[in-house]
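yo, DUF3800 domain-containing protein is done. seq:
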Amino acid sequence: MPPVEIACDESGSEGENLLGGETDVFAHAGVRLTPEEAEACLREIRARIGSPAEEYKANHLLRAKHRPVLEWLLAPDGPLAGRGHVHLTDKTFFAVRAAVTLLADEGTEELARTLHRTGPVAFGAARWNFFLAAFTSVLRLNPRRGVTTSPEEFFALVAELAQSGGEAGEILARFRDGEDRVAAYRARLATDPGFVPVLDPLVPAVIHTVRHWSAEATPVELVHDEQLALTAERVLQLKSTLGPRLAGVRFVDSRTDARVQMADFLAGVARRIASDKLNTRGDARLTGLLEPFVDEGSVWGSGRFRR
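structure:
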């Protein structure tokens, strides 16, 4: 069976900088359009918006005066209906889940959700945010900004917070024996170029994208916007993980491929709509229009994004 080409792009990518960055949501979108269909869609968007800009981005669609164009794009009878898919990541919950997965014996999704819910209440928002920043710091060999914490300092903090009791304290108490795991993780990160950092949401999102489009045993070839994080070694790792589902990955400049530009639109508007929902200022109409596009496996702290 010949592979189907899925054009992809992302929005909110800051690598392993999950906290304190410019964005709190990461979105990875894939669209199944022919080049001709994508070109026609871009022409229609240009005609409806009427801006003289040479290159349109998602922020054009997100302006209040262009709300009808955005609703048309996401509508059940719009050009992306059944042809678009987006995987969302709540970056803070992604960090909490990474901590539970790496440090807790028999860490589970339920345990991560419990810690995500109870941590800010048990320790206070400032102390909780410092703890998460310390965790992300200790897993990075060369932190570029924010909190810089050694493994020794991090586990001293874990021991201190674990004394607080309650559900959050009990979960952190399970982290105290994680020194060897952190050491092994850092050693592999330093020596294995194909190793995927647990703090980078891109590769897991790509895996979900491929699994979505290959659900009927159709192999997928990704046509992806140029992305430095998807190194040759990591592409090989993706192929190993996905097997025959992934036929290949080809990188293009988004300015030269209308399909990738459409994926860029979908990723950008999805990230903004999801961020507004995450921060309790969501637009019910736009959230409802976005829901059919959202992957059921999106990493969302308050449960599934979709109703």
